Task: inverse folding
């Protein structure tokens, strides 16, 4: 049995990963999570006591991190400030958690010789034109646009330096936009689903032509587990499921699946510096490690996600009003 430390395991993708690991392996999981506004302990309810431990704490706390590294075989680092709109409002926590937090974990990995997997984003590559035939690959130059994506890019570069300079046993993955259960209502898809449930019209930034490359969070989890088990040390793997869709199409699909008129949404102020298009070429991961996404039908995955939000109002309702108040101040 492997003992895993998962940082940010009470967040959206981290909690999906913890459920995936508990269901598909015999590993023991310790979650280290600060429980910021984005963390929710309820996302980890009902996990078996003999397979799972929860520690509330900050990844910037070197003493705490060092102690936890001495008890595990491998670390998967999800903890981050993750939302672009928040990073435009107040960048400072992004520097603390995404840069200093990653540095703190890398130093512990160096001292303990711990296997370390770093979770990152396709946003480090900047954006593509709508008609560009190229997609992002592991060789695309870094060109981040926002305070969020620039701190993620910085954290990736720290990992590369710690591999080369100190021989840290690390891999990196850069994934596209995730959807699925346990995602905070500040993010695009849950915001629109919960708006419709509340009788609020969905809000589309600008013209809604921006393209995101959607992948189900469970497919992200299976890819990360594959890289942790079989990835080559020092390598970067891009994770994507060929799910490009523009935002307008996604909003119209949500409305249709929820029994509303497909044009029952509002155009609102655009995001400053809004990236136009992301698209991932995940050939390296598929060809080298044999990974394949399981959720190939976006409409079916989205319908299941809508069902989850309809059935779990207790989980998301406490964050909804404050989130909408934040957006209302920005005309979004
Ligand atoms: P999230 O905001 O839902 O969750 C982040 C979690 O990290 C929360 O539980 C929060 O409490 C915790 N956290 C924040 N600061 C912390 C700190 N200083 N110490 C300990 N815990 C802290 O984020 P998410 O969407 O699940 O993203 C997780 C990771 O995946 C991030 O690294 C993000 O960059 C990356 N990623 C996200 C997506 C996506 O579509 N959401 C896509 C690709 C990569
Ligand atoms: O690409 C991976 C990234 O995906 C991750 O690194 C980030 O952590 C994650 O938040 C996500 O970033 P985006 O900025 O793409 O996601 P968000 O859900 O904020 O927005 C998705 C798209 O929808 C984007 O083009 C902005 C738009 N949008 C968003 C909201 C919240 C709207 O049109 N209306 C909205 O209300």
Result:
């Amino acid at each position: 049995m492997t003992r895993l430390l998962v940082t940010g395991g009470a967040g959206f993708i981290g909690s999906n990963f913890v459920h995936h690991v508990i269901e598909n392996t015999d590993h023991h999981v310790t979650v280290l999570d600060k429980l910021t506004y984005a963390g929710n302990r309820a996302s980890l309810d009902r996990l078996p006591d003999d397979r799972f431990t929860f520690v509330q704490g900050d990844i910037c706390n070197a003493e705490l991190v060092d102690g936890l590294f001495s008890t595990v075989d491998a670390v998967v680092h999800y903890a981050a400030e993750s939302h672009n709109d928040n990073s435009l409002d107040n960048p400072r926590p992004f520097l603390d958690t995404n840069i200093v937090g990653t540095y703190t974990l890398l130093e512990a990995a160096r001292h303990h010789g711990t296997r370390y997997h770093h979770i990152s984003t396709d946003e480090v590559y900047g954006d593509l034109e709508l008609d560009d035939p190229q997609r992002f690959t592991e060789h695309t130059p870094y060109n981040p646009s926002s305070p969020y994506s620039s701190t993620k890019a910085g954290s990736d570069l720290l990992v590369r330096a710690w591999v080369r300079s100190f021989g840290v046993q690390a891999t990196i993955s850069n994934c596209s936009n995730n959807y699925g259960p346990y995602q905070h209502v500040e993010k695009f898809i849950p915001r629109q689903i919960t708006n419709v449930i509340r009788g609020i019209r969905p809000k589309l930034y600008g013209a809604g032509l921006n393209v995101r490359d959607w992948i189900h969070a469970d497919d992200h989890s299976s890819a990360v587990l594959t890289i942790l088990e079989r990835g080559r040390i020092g390598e970067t793997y891009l994770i994507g499921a060929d799910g490009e869709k523009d935002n307008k199409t996604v909003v119209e699909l949500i409305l249709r699946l929820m029994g509303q008129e497909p044009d029952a949404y509002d155009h609102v102020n655009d995001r400053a510096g809004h990236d136009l298009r992301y698209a991932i070429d995940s050939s390296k991961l598929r060809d080298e490690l044999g990974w394949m996404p399981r959720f190939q039908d976006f409409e079916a995955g989205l319908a299941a996600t809508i069902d989850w939000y309809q059935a779990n109002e207790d989980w998301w309702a406490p964050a909804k009003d404050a989130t909408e108040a934040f957006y209302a101040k920005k005309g979004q």
Notes: The domain at 3-178+214-239 is CATH 3.40.50.720 (Rossmann fold).
